[in-house]
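I hope you will forgive my troubling you with a question about protein structure. You will find the record immediately after this paragraph.
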Amino acid sequence: MQIAENLHMFLGRDRPIESHSFLLLGKQTILIDTGMETKNILLQLNSLNIRPNDLDLIVNTHCHFDHIRNNKSLKEATGAKLAAGEEDAPHIEASDGHTGSNIFGEKVQGAEVDILLKGGEKLNDFEVLYTPGHTSGSVCLFRKSDGILISGDTIFANGYPGRMDLPSGSEEEMSDTLKRLEKLGVEKIFPAHGVAVLRNARQNIETALNYVKV
């Protein structure tokens, strides 16, 4: 479904756990996260008259299995390149314990990361933000013109920050990340799970900060 100009959201299921995916349209056609089954992502693209080989780039917000599950098959189906935060990229390629698949009993295939994100990159009209805390290589995407934040698992509705007790998670880094997000002028938050925050986004970030003990 279209949620804003040049931005669509593909809703993931709760069981088995899937992340929502987001589609950025513009100069490039960009998919955020691959937790949904490849066939369902391709059906969603087809409904928008987007052919598989029209997809230019896949971005992982972080390395957890429910966000990278179909990287390999989707790269093969579309020819798209894969981008991820430089700290998480090795875990995405190796599909190692940092993906959390061992905790939840699901093994995912590794996939080569073609582009390492460090923050500051422009993806159409969104800027990549390096946002460690949930993992050391988490990224969010922010569009200044309308204040939209695609937050991955960094922050959710009701002021909940992402978990910090999984491999490479850090309360200190999460605190620093949330403090930076608080200053950006975020108007709406679209997390990878659950519902969006469509009002009082800054208050939502402030509440998340209160959960972090640093």
